[in-house]
Design a protein that fits this description.
By secondary structure, the chain is an alpha+beta fold. It folds into 3 domains: 108 residues, DNA Polymerase III, subunit A, domain 2 (DNA Polymerase III, Chain A, domain 2), CATH 3.10.150.10; 130 residues, DNA Polymerase III, subunit A, domain 2 (DNA Polymerase III, Chain A, domain 2, Roll), CATH 3.10.150.10; 118 residues, DNA Polymerase III, Chain A, domain 2, CATH 3.10.150. 18% of the residues lie in helices and 42% in strands. The protein has 7 helices and 26 strands. A hairpin with a 2-residue loop joins strand 2 and strand 3. It starts with a strand and ends with a strand.
Length: 375
């Protein structure tokens, strides 16, 4: 039995984090619940779907100790609707968790924590410090090109690999592809010996989304690999993400070389143009024609069910007139993640792949595969 007093906003945030990890559906009831543990000076919360496990704790005034597993939705609603700044939780008989928020109270029927999976964790010495905001930025620049297709299991995550090239800063490189585009971003890091797996590791999309959410308010995050998982921790939270199996494509082979032409564009102007072109995109018609001329890009799209659209934007380009096709939504997603005012597209006449870089986004490069334009 326990009684605990906590700040409502801190508890609500922890419950929200755990709720995003809880399985959407499961034949085992325990995976639909979050685990509350009271000990020492903390209230700890945990959630898992066996692929992603999240542990977090918040300071609390504690009396007694114990554990209970509860369904998160009604508990989160209780916290949202309560008007007081503090919450008192009292674990009663038969795993009933009684909550009090000012004059508002609610009882939540819990279950024993005995069947909640035990989490094995590495020693503290095995972690390496990473700039949390640099990692958030790298995830943003790669996660949107992770595939969701069932037939491409080895493309359903982001590939993490340490890079130690001669005369270059050591870094952790993140790579993603859906076979139509490729994105690469890097995070500086001095000591990456914890990433010993030959060929890197493949981290699933959901786990990286939860890792990003964990990193967003932080300055630093600590990473390691352990028990076929990527483990990240901060002062009061820890996430363990089971790695995907399979071989990630040799992405360096995909990178185009010997590029003859360069197009420079204002990122915001190009972004607005392509947003306008994308209004006619749907699941059946999502390509647009790109006509590169000296100092001018004209983009047009036709959807037999909706109509036609056409727009132009100025560019810095003095090469031969070139016509090709892209999915404009792909470029919109890419441009939305960049910070630079200008962005470059480099290509050759003999290769359908365009290399994208931006001067104020060091460590980033992207590849867009064009579709040949039939004149």
């Amino acid at each position: 039995m326990f009684k605990v007093k906590v700040r409502k906003d801190e508890l609500a945030k922890a419950v929200s984090q755990c709720s995003s990890v809880v399985a959407r559906r499961s034949t085992m009831d325990i995976f639909l619940r979050i685990l509350l543990t009271v000990e020492d000076y903390y209230l700890s919360l945990a959630a898992t779907d066996l692929e992603v496990t999240l542990l977090t704790r918040i300071p609390a005034d504690v009396s007694g100790y114990g554990q209970v597993a509860i369904k998160p939705k009604a508990f989160a609603d209780f916290l949202r609707l309560g008007s007081a700044n503090e919450v008192v939780l009292d674990l009663g008989d038969n795993f009933t968790l009684n909550g009090f928020c000012g004059g508002f109270s609610a009882s939540h029927f819990g279950v024993s924590a005995e069947t909640f999976p035990r989490v094995s964790l590495p020693d503290d010495s095995e972690f390496v410090r990473i700039d949390a905001q640099a990692l958030v930025d790298a995830i943003d620049k790669t996660i949107y090109s992770v595939t969701g297709g069932d037939e491409t299991y080895n493309l359903k995550g982001i590939y993490l690999i340490r890079e130690e090239e001669p005369d270059q800063p050591k870094c952790l490189r993140l790579v993603s592809t859906d076979a139509q585009r490729l994105n690469i971003a890097t995070v500086p890091a001095e000591n990456l010996d914890v990433f010993q797996e030959e060929g890197g590791i493949l981290v699933p999309r959901k786990g990286l989304q939860e890792l990003k959410a964990m990193c967003e308010p932080l300055a630093d995050i600590y990473l390691t690999t352990y028990d076929n998982s990527l483990v990240a921790k901060s002062e009061n939270s820890l996430i363990k993400i089971r790695l995907l199996s399979g071989n990630f494509p040799s992405y360096k082979v995909i990178m185009p070389t010997e590029l003859e032409h360069t197009i420079w564009a204002n990122r915001k102007e190009l972004l607005e143009t392509l947003k306008r072109i994308s209004i006619l995109s749907d699941e059946n018609y999502h390509f647009a024609d790109f006509n590169f001329q000296k100092e001018l890009l004209t983009v047009s799209s036709t959807n037999p069910d909706l109509g036609k659209v056409k727009d132009s934007v100025g560019i810095d380009y003095d090469g031969p007139e070139t016509m090709t096709r892209f999915n404009p939504n792909f470029i919109v997603e890419l441009l939305n993640t960049l910070k630079s005012d200008r962005v470059s597209f480099r290509f050759s006449d003999s290769n359908p792949s365009y290399l994208v870089t931006a001067p104020e986004d060091p460590g980033y490069s992207g590849v867009l595969v064009s579709v040949a334009y039939d004149v």
